[in-house]
TrEMBL record:
Keyword Transmembrane: no
Lineage: Bacteria, Bacillati, Bacillota, Bacilli, Bacillales
SUPFAM superfamilies from the UniProt entry: Phosphotyrosine protein phosphatases I
Name of protein: Arsenate reductase ArsC
Domain spans labelled Phosphotyrosine protein phosphatase I: 2-130
Keyword terms of this UniProt record: Arsenical resistance
InterPro entries, per the entry: Ptyr_pPase, Ptyr_pPase_sf
Amino acid sequence: MYFLCVHNRCRSQMAKAFARHFAGNKVIANSAGVEESQIHPLTIEVMKEVGIDISDQQSKRIDMKVFISSQIVIKLCEQVNEKCPIVPFGITNVQWDIPDPTPKQGGGTIEEFRVTRDLIRENVLQLLKEHKVV
């Protein structure tokens, strides 16, 4: 599973962490962004609230080797759809349009991050169930 968003600072980081948390070693979960950034501090904080420590994760740009070797590519926002390489035939292409809680001019509220976290958790669990992982 390859979770993609624009900056790899919030949504895709959360999705990767939830996939690893719920599926353990049953899946290989990675995340990346079209543009590299820094993980937003509130991303780390709201994940700690649910018992998942992502403080050691790093923001990364899309790695084409990981991209083409993934069985499922999950795009967490519409913007990444426009900038992302075309998903090759044979790879499941999933689109989630989850709002970015990190506004361009400063940070969003912790409540916005919590809403995003909870929505991503639901989507990841549903995806894992659809693919009979959990």
